[in-house]
Design goal:
2 copies of one chain form a homodimer. Chain A has 222 residues and is of the alpha/beta class. Chain A has a single domain (21-221), classed as P-loop containing nucleotide triphosphate hydrolases (Rossmann fold, 3-Layer(aba) Sandwich), CATH 3.40.50. In chain A, 41% of the residues lie in helices and 20% in strands. Chain A has helices at residues 11-31, 46-57, 74-80, 99-109, 127-130, 150-153, 155-160, 179-189, 206-221; strands at residues 3-5, 34-40, 63-69, 85-90, 116-120, 137-143, 163-167, 194-197. In chain A, strands 4-3-5-2-6-7-8 form a 7-stranded parallel β-sheet, with helices on both faces. The first copy, chain A, is globular, with a radius of gyration of 17 Å. Mean pLDDT of chain A is 89; it is low at 1-10. At the A-B interface, β1, α3, β4, α4 and α6 of A face β1, α3, β4, α4 and α6 of B. β1 (3-5) of chain A pairs parallel with β4 of chain B, so a sheet runs across the interface.
């Protein structure tokens, strides 16, 4: 069986972006606003999870949401209805956000008084993992139907994430999904990631996720 | 609510690729080998569907499979066990295949005597839609758990596909998934696409898919 290796030259683009991301992160730190880069495949339940999270946290934290999408604005309307300051970012076909686009989004959103901003990145397990947006924390969502083998196939996404959310746990009985096997696969890529299985539908695991968020916001403001 | 539009300049890259893709398609037509570009999100069931398809067609058609992946070679081994000539393409982090990479893959695979070659593209609903690989047909898979709203969020993928497979129909009762709504959303993007709901697990819809493939191969050889 042959293996073909193809390398794309993109180091310059990445280095410039890394500098912009570091500068943005420092400014967000000074402002006391934690930016979370939320990444996943299409259809992993990002928007549903955000809505359920806002229902639990919007009374105690001031939260903003930037929904990035290739097209449409269904998501921003949905989360705004749950108490967040929300904007939609259209990427014009691009498969990820970089630090410059994120900064442009934050400028439009306005971070004054916000404790926490979620950046809902483009639904994609590859490109968003490669570009630092300037976020303080990176969170990825893997939904149960996608399968426990995904850390083997999309290693970088799992390597860069601080927290791995396993969403749609309520449908686990209907899939060949092994949480222990997933944990083993995640650990191979990232021994330090926190793994948080949950269901926005039943509420299972939502307390652990919200506690993680509260602690992350408190740490960021220190 | 603000909307931010960001445009990436990539017309030159695309135009060069389009020419290479046209040339490759013409050569495949002369050789009588139909190349199918199979695209989907991660975890949509591409590999499981291919295995079930090979079990039904490998006796009557000579089939090759090129599995593109950012990393790992689990898929190529899996499909080779079901009677296909198979190779793995590693993209070195890239989120799509272009015509040059596809040609390199076909050269390694060897198309002599093959009626049909599946190119399992990188799991991603954005980038693969933008790059013509030289395939004769484009097929996308949307799995039930991803939701019926996906044509609204990833319009280009649905616009370019000749056939939309709706996979994992066996779990439809456990999700808020409306096939009629999906069909309406697909039609908005692409009035001509064939929609094929199926389950590789129960076999539902597999005959329709295999019949579509047989007819496409016959058309290609005319």
């Amino acid at each position: 069986m042959d293996t073909i290796k193809i390398i794309e030259v993109k180091e310059d683009v990445r280095a410039n972006n890394d500098r912009a991301a570091e500068a943005l992160r420092a400014r967000l730190h000074d402002a006391g606003t934690l930016l979370i880069n939320l990444m996943s495949s299409p259809g992993s339940g990002k928007t549903t999870l955000l809505a359920a999270t806002l229902d639990r946290l919007a009374d105690s934290l001031a939260i903003g949401v930037m929904e990035a999408d290739v097209d449409s604005d269904v998501d921003a309307h949905a989360v705004a209805a749950h108490g967040a300051r929300a904007i939609q970012l259209h990427t014009g076909g691009m498969c990820h956000l970089d630090a410059a686009m994120t900064e442009q989004g934050l400028h439009s959103l306005g971070i004054d008084g916000l404790d926490l901003v979620f950046l809902e990145n483009v639904g994609n397990l590859i490109c968003p993992a490669e570009f630092d947006t300037g976020a303080g924390k990176k969170v990825m969502i893997l939904s149960v139907p996608e399968g426990h083998d995904k850390p083997l196939k999309y290693p970088l996404m799992f390597e860069v994430s601080d927290l791995v959310i396993v969403s749609k746990m309520d449908v686990a009985p209907y899939f060949d999904f092994d949480l222990k096997e997933l944990e083993k696969n995640v650990r191979m890529r990232n021994p330090n990631a926190t793994i948080c299985p949950l269901s926005a539908k039943t509420g299972e695991g939502m307390d652990a996720w919200c506690n993680w968020l509260r602690a992350a916001v408190n740490d960021w403001k220190k």
